[in-house]
């Protein structure tokens, strides 16, 4: 339910004032005047007398101090409420049981005097009242409404109903001490909780304006989250955000000050603008005489919803609000509830009368419906259940892994020549997260409407030849079919073909006469194939694997047409077969430029079946030598349409991003505490981030690689004992939010 307060352009003759029209939820209206009083600079303030002007100036000055009192903040909010609405306006909005959940303030977009006030602090005029946004029983989202452009009145703003694409664009380095983008990105990603949401996110750090345009064209984001420095640029006379300068251009400190028009132009690279933009940039929601806020200009350019900062906000408050807001949005909560939760959580992290919780502002086009959901997850619950059952959902992958997801887009595109992706770890003893990466790639494939088939290899049961490798693929197909409730006793081309090649006598000796399902027959037959030389029928093996994979995809599409469209394809993922002799000889015999080999398949059936392999080569490069992988790829025909990605080690000590790397690792894991429990995800205590950096450097002294659970557990224990780290439990904070609202 939305109430609307429309403020017209100021009346400059006679008695100075702003004409106001208040429209209640039920459509009832009243008109009134909001008084105005100019100060010595000519700026207008909503005050009726000189005494009121003095009071408002003192309150505004107090809010600019480092630690304003809560009493001052409340008084400021009451003052704005009374001048905007008055007693009659409040009675109209709160009467007849029609309490609004959203209060849309429609101000003239170029009225800097109005926009520079913190309207998000509006406070119930009663002595025992509450900030409207913090009311525990009826929180109200304060929205700054921007009129829909002429010609777009018939535009229909719709929520995302499938997998939401999100782009993090960071204008600085991830470890920048002022922006701390790495921390913000990771806490927000973690807040999405993939076990209950569908989200496909990409991260672009140190982004330029051209880079933003390319990223928007590639990702086509529904939500763009831009993290950057923001400020008033006196020479340009407008607010800007700082992106990286293009290489070779003459910019001071390699920084490019970008205005709203340039940002909107870059966002249009996808053909359409994002549904929502989140600007984690100071002052991106504020304005000065003669200019509009960046957020307002983006809405005017066509972005339906923009969340931005109306002042210089602390990292902690900005990060907390953004994380809670995004987490609520992707869970399908209406925008007003998402905003209320985010404000409550940000308020809980502050002290006294600090107003940072109110500085994030929501700018919205007037054609966005009331109770709008940015992401409506009601149509995707069945897919989320499949994600959980198939097991690809896990903690997000981030550090030095984002390029894999970019390649996955090309891999899944039937028109793209990329058909095979090989991820090679740095060594047998390293822990680069390859298994977790494959699980995430499987989840991303499933969210995109494709059917992943994960092949894992148990120690001691690695395939000795291509025939056993084909049986392992068949077992993975059976497992996937079982999780999707498809027929598991299907006629398998792999099994039938291998049995025919092995001969009836051998098959009868291995298998009992009674009837067995496909998976059981395959597992019983597998040991007999260890000494088999399938060289004579390897082309047939590839054809049989294709046939079984495509049959699985067809069955899934028939059973779940809403989840798996006809364009969906199977994708084969093989996890860490490091001990398999001549792995790439065997695998190479089953691959072609179309993924799973299609050399002997009818041309009309040669659709690409992409393949992803992760391996840790136990004989890695030394003294400039080649790895087995490099040697195996040489002269392989299928390698011409393959991409090989080498995992980077976690950042070594001395690199400026070392502390950020440790931080990202911590954010994604639950680790032992002093009393033997396991932590919830951790965060650094506000104002102690410098001590956190020193603690990490001390704990990792002399260590070149931090992918060690033992080392990270030591960092966790030290951080918690020194009260530098604390458990980050947003749900508990919201659950125990004081019944009376904000603390006195």
From TrEMBL:
Domain CHAT: 75-344
Record Pfam families: CHAT (PF12770)
Domain of life: Bacteria
Protein name (record): CHAT domain-containing protein
């Amino acid at each position: 339910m939305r109430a609307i307060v429309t403020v017209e352009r100021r009346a400059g003759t006679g008695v100075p004032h702003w004409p106001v029209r208040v429209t209640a939820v039920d459509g009832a209206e009243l008109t009134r005047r909001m008084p105005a009083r100019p100060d010595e600079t000519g700026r207008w303030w909503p005050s009726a007398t000189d005494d009121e002007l003095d009071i408002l100036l003192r309150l505004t000055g107090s809010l600019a101090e480092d630690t304003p009192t809560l009493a001052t903040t409340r008084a400021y909010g009451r003052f704005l409420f009374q001048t905007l609405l008055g007693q009659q306006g409040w009675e109209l909005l709160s009467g007849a049981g029609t309490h609004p959940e959203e209060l849309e303030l429609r101000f003239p977009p170029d009225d800097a005097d109005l926009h520079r006030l913190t309207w998000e602090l509006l406070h119930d005029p009663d002595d025992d009242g509450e900030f409207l946004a913090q009311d525990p029983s009826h929180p109200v989202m304060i929205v700054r409404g921007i009129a829909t452009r002429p010609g777009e009145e018939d535009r229909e703003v719709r929520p995302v109903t499938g997998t939401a694409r999100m782009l993090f664009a960071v204008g600085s380095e991830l470890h920048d001490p002022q922006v701390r983008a790495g921390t913000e990105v990771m806490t927000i990603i973690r807040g999405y909780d993939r076990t209950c949401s569908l989200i496909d996110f990409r991260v672009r750090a140190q982004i330029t304006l051209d880079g933003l345009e390319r990223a928007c064209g590639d990702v086509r984001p529904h939500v763009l989250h831009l993290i950057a420095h923001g400020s008033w640029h006196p020479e340009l006379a407008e607010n800007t955000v700082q992106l990286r300068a293009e290489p070779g251009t003459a910019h001071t400190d390699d920084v490019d000050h970008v205005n709203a028009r340039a940002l909107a132009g870059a966002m249009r690279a996808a053909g359409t603008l994002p549904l929502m933009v989140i600007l984690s940039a100071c002052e991106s929601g504020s304005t000065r005489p003669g200019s509009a806020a960046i957020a307002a200009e983006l809405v005017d350019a066509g972005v339906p919803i923009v969340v931005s900062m109306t002042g210089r906000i602390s990292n902690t408050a900005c990060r907390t609000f953004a994380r809670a807001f995004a987490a609520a949005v992707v869970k399908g909560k209406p925008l007003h509830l998402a905003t209320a939760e985010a404000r409550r959580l940000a308020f809980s992290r502050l002290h006294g009368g600090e107003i940072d919780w109110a500085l994030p502002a929501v700018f919205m086009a007037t054609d966005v419906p009331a109770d709008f959901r940015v992401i409506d997850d009601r149509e995707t619950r069945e897919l989320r259940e499949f994600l959980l059952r198939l097991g690809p959902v896990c903690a997000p992958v981030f550090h030095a892994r984002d390029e894999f997801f970019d390649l996955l887009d090309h891999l899944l595109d039937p028109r793209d020549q990329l058909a095979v992706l090989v991820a090679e770890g740095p060594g047998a003893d390293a822990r680069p997260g390859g298994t977790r990466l494959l699980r995430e790639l499987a989840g991303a494939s499933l969210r995109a409407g494709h059917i992943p088939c994960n092949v894992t290899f148990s120690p001691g049961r690695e395939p000795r030849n291509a025939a056993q490798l084909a049986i392992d693929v068949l077992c993975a197909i059976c497992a996937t079919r079982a999780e999707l409730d498809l027929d598991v006793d299907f006629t398998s081309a792999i099994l039938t073909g291998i049995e025919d090649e092995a001969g009836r006598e051998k098959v009868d000796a291995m298998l009992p006469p009674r009837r067995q399902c496909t998976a059981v027959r395959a597992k019983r037959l597998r040991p007999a194939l260890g000494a088999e030389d399938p060289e004579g029928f390897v082309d047939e093996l590839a054809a049989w694997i294709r046939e079984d994979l495509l049959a699985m995809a067809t069955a899934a599409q028939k059973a779940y047409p809403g989840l798996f469209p006809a364009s969906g394809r199977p994708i084969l993922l093989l996890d860490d077969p490091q001990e398999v002799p001549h792995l790439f000889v065997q695998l190479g015999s089953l691959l072609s430029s179309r993924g799973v080999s299609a050399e002997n398949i009818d041309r009309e059936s040669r659709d690409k079946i992409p393949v992803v392999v992760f391996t840790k080569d136990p004989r890695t490069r030394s003294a400039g030598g080649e790895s087995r992988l490099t040697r195996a790829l040489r002269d392989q025909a299928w390698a011409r349409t393959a991409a090989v990605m080498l995992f980077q080690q976690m950042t070594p000590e001395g690199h400026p991003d070392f502390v950020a790397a440790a931080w990202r690792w911590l954010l994604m894991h639950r680790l032992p505490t002093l009393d033997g429990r396991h932590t919830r995800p951790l965060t650094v205590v506000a104002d102690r981030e410098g001590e956190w950096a020193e603690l990490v450097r001390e704990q990792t002294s002399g260590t070149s690689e931090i992918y060690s659970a033992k080392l990270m557990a030591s960092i966790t224990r030290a951080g918690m004992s020194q009260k530098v780290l604390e458990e980050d439990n947003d749900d508990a904070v919201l659950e125990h939010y004081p019944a009376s609202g904000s603390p006195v």
